[in-house]
């Protein structure tokens, strides 16, 4: 397998002739799907199979299936799942039930995805929001304390992995304090390092052994006032790999987002030079995809080793009675409004 250090999107529900030629020549490490790529189960299964046929190996297929606001697959073909805040409310009533629900919700999402040939889910969100932050994280978060966020995020990740699907912890080293939506503009966080270490970064430490992670397009002025974490060698080396101790394969957040500046090739090279193992590009614009591919080298060295270690975990699947699991999950989530824990 010879793959380049980037993840690509697609424009629609089927791979076009031009996209097929691009994929064959550029050889991305993976594919990420969005709502524009999803219609029904048969179509998604055909799309993921076609992508892998083009590349000639079981290349990873990613999606953002958190639940709540961020859910690319939904009714009528797939269930709705709650946002992280729902698990937080249940955890507040009874921590054991909250953890069980997060783990079970992750497992059910993983089962949905695995049936379609999707084997990477961009969860859990381990960001810790603060009261005056932008709402881009908001109810996606598992709470407002690092211990609770880390515990629930870890439970969700365990559930996803039990289905043979890999989790991607995001957004390293923390997007919860951001004062802007990085899809639109660059957030700058001015908190001192001691505060960041005790809150934002702390939630990620218990998740440092997860196989995949995604960076935040956020400037932390106390550590690197010039660059967002995605393109900051200081943030990746000293914080993400250092203080947090994250060991997995590290991808950028989407390099086409408004937080970053410069040409797509410049953004991609900057992320890779800073220490990202992979560049993520999501919008399916073929010209942009070509620019990212041209900037991405072949995956090699320690980045390739981290990729191999991550992909080896896709094989782990534990038996489950899906009907019973869905009933148990529904019962747990219904207890939030009822306020009753058995």
Tell me what the structure shows:
There is one protein chain. The chain has 342 residues and is of the alpha/beta class. It has a single domain, classed as Glycoside hydrolase, family 3, N-terminal domain (TIM Barrel). The chain is 42% helix and 15% strand. Helix 3 crosses helix 12 and helix 9 packs parallel to helix 10.
Strand and helix layout:
Elements: E1 4-8, H1 17-26, E2 28-33, H2 41-55, E3 61-63, E4 65-67, E5 70-71, H3 84-93, H4 95-114, E6 120-121, H5 146-162, E7 166-172, E8 188-189, H6 193-198, H7 202-205, E9 212-215, E10 219-220, E11 224-228, H8 233-243, E12 249-254, H9 264-274, E13 278-280, H10 286-295, H11 301-312, H12 322-338
Parallel strand pairs: 1-2, 1-13, 2-3, 3-6, 6-7, 7-9, 8-10, 9-12, 12-13
Antiparallel strand pairs: 4-5, 10-11
Global structural class: alpha/beta
State the distance separating the first and last CA atoms.
Answer: 51 Å
- In CATH, the topology is named TIM Barrel
Major beta sheet, specifics? Answer: 8 strands, parallel, barrel
Helix content: 40-55%
> Any idea of the CATH class?
Alpha Beta
DSSP strand count: 13
The unreliable regions are none
Percent of residues in beta strands: 5-15%
What would you call the shape? globular
Oligomer: single chain
Number of helical segments? 12
How many domains would you count in the coordinates? 1
CATH superfamily: Glycoside hydrolase, family 3, N-terminal domain
- The assigned CATH architecture is Alpha-Beta Barrel
Order of helices and strands: EHEHEEEHHEHEEHHEEEHEHEHHH
Instruction: Please state how the strands of the largest beta sheet are arranged side by side.
Output: 1-2-3-6-7-9-12-13
Please state the CA-atom Rg, rounded to the nearest Å.
19 Å
Q: Averaged pLDDT, please? A: 96
